[in-house]
Structures are given as structure tokens and as C-alpha cells.
Design goal:
The chain is an alpha/beta fold. The chain contains ten helices and twelve strands. The protein has one domain: Alpha-Beta Barrel (TIM Barrel), CATH 3.20.20.70. The chain has an eight-stranded parallel beta barrel with strand order 1-4-5-6-7-10-11-12, surrounded by six helices. A hairpin with a 4-residue loop joins β8 and β9. α1 packs parallel to α2. The chain is globular and about 45 Å long. The chain starts with a strand and ends in a 7-residue tail after the last helix.
């Protein structure tokens, strides 16, 4: 049985970790270097760093900050935000990232995923999918969730697998920051229609929500932010709880 993963997420804006609700009303959650080091020490399985305004501001990821985070952790590290070329990926990997997360650039140019997968191997390429229910349809959103597209979330997940993505980071914008639980039905549906590992994101509020996303949601990993940043749930306690619930964890 594959081990399930717990992944804290650092949403970074202006060099600070921030967190909001439904991608809005951001508040300061602390220093990303300090938080990354803490989560590494606490036994997080991976760390995700998303420069959430890089695409909107039409600039590159904060590479120097990425380097500082990477120097203080010893777990796999994924970087996202403003990544749109082979050169961008090289810069992130050289700064200490193990993987990159691509979202808006893949929507603009889906063939980019083919290129990146060929150049770096699909184990490096995570495609982030920000999805929201719009009039009964799950539609992909770009530019930090600010721009709806006409892309069906499930069909887009299938296309990204075909083009060489190694993993999908699925964020329910409807659930983001609400602490009402993950979008388990959508996560499970995508998990059963693609063979890639699925990282579920958006909605974590209790330890039970993690049990649900791993069982009903069929997720391979669960990503959360505010509950870890504001010390509502500790990673060691969460992993012990999930292990007792019969979910295979790295303790």
C-alpha cells in the first residue's frame, strides 16, 4: 500500500506567507523560511511554495526566497507561480526545488507540459488545477484563480496526463479556506479517471477531513495551509491520528 502524504502549502505574496478564503481576503501567516523549516522538522512529507501573484504581476517566481527555504528543509519541495518556460523550471530546480507546479502557462500553451516533461522528466512536473463550480460545471481557472476558462476540469486533468504531467494538484476554489472539508466527490472522480497521483487541496479544517479525502476522495496526498500556519492542527498529531485510522503514513 502506498504511503499517503501530508503537504503544507506556503502561499507567498510580497515575500510573506498569506492565507485567505476562496482565494480572497489574504492575511499574513508568517515567514516562509521559518515555516518551511518548522514543517520539515515536524515530519511533513513534502512542502509546496506558491508565489500566488507572480502570474498576475507578470513576473518570475521569487528565486532568492526559494533558495532560502530550500536551504532549511530536507523534504521534497515543489515551487509554483509564474513558471512558463524551460528556463523558469531550470532556475527553480537550481534554486533547490525538486518539482515545479505549472498552472496558467499550461492553460495558455498546453504543449508546454509536453516540452517540460521531455526536458526534465515527468517526475518534476506537477500541473496545478484551480477549479470552481460555475452553473453546475467544474471549470478550470487561471491567474491565481481570478480568470475562469471554458475548460472542463475532468477533461483538462486527462489532457495533462496525456501530455506528460507527473502529478496533479487539484484545488477546489469553492472549498479553499472554508475548513468545511475537501471536495471529495470531485477528487475521487478525477482520481478514478486518471492514473496520476492526486494532491487534494482546499477545505481542510479537521483531522477527520483528512481521513475522508484519503478514503472517500481517493487522494494520494492532502495539502493544507491555514490549519498548519495558525497551529490549529499539528502535523505530528495529524499523522498519528491518520495512522490509528488505518491510513498508511510515514511516521
Amino acid at each position: 500500500m502506498l504511503t499517503k502524504r501530508i503537504i503544507p502549502c506556503l502561499d507567498v505574496k510580497d515575500g510573506k506567507t498569506v492565507k485567505g478564503v476562496n482565494f480572497l481576503n489574504l492575511r499574513d501567516a508568517g515567514d516562509p523560511v521559518e515555516l518551511g523549516a518548522l514543517y520539515s522538522q515536524q515530519g511533513a512529507d513534502e512542502l509546496v511554495f506558491l508565489d500566488i501573484t507572480a502570474t498576475l504581476e507578470k513576473r518570475k517566481t521569487l528565486v532568492e526566497l526559494v533558495k532560502r527555504v530550500a536551504q532549511n528543509i530536507n523534504i521534497p519541495f515543489t515551487i509554483g507561480g509564474g513558471i512558463g518556460s524551460i528556463e523558469d523550471v531550470s532556475a527553480c530546480l537550481n534554486a533547490g526545488a525538486d518539482k515545479v507546479s505549472v498552472n496558467s502557462s499550461a492553460i495558455k500553451n498546453p504543449a508546454l507540459i509536453d516540452q517540460l516533461s521531455r526536458e526534465f522528466g515527468n517526475q518534476c512536473i506537477v500541473v496545478a488545477i484551480d477549479t470552481r463550480n460555475v452553473e453546475g460545471k467544474n471549470l478550470v481557472h487561471s491567474h491565481g484563480g481570478t480568470k475562469p476558462t471554458t475548460l472542463d476540469t475532468i477533461e483538462w486533468a486527462k489532457e495533462m496526463q496525456e501530455r506528460g504531467a507527473g502529478e496533479l494538484l487539484l484545488t477546489s476554489m469553492d472549498k479553499d479556506g472554508t475548513k468545511s472539508g475537501f471536495a471529495n466527490d470531485l477528487t475521487a472522480y478525477i482520481s478514478t479517471h486518471v492514473s496520476l497521483p492526486i494532491i487534494a487541496s482546499g477545505g481542510a479544517g479537521t483531522m477527520e477531513h483528512f481521513t475522508d479525502v484519503f478514503t472517500h476522495g481517493k487522494a494520494d496526498a492532502a495539502l493544507a495551509a491555514s490549519i498548519f500556519h495558525f497551529k490549529e492542527i499539528g502535523i505530528p498529531e495529524l499523522k498519528q491520528y491518520l495512522s490509528r485510522e488505518g491510513i498508511h503514513m510515514r511516521l
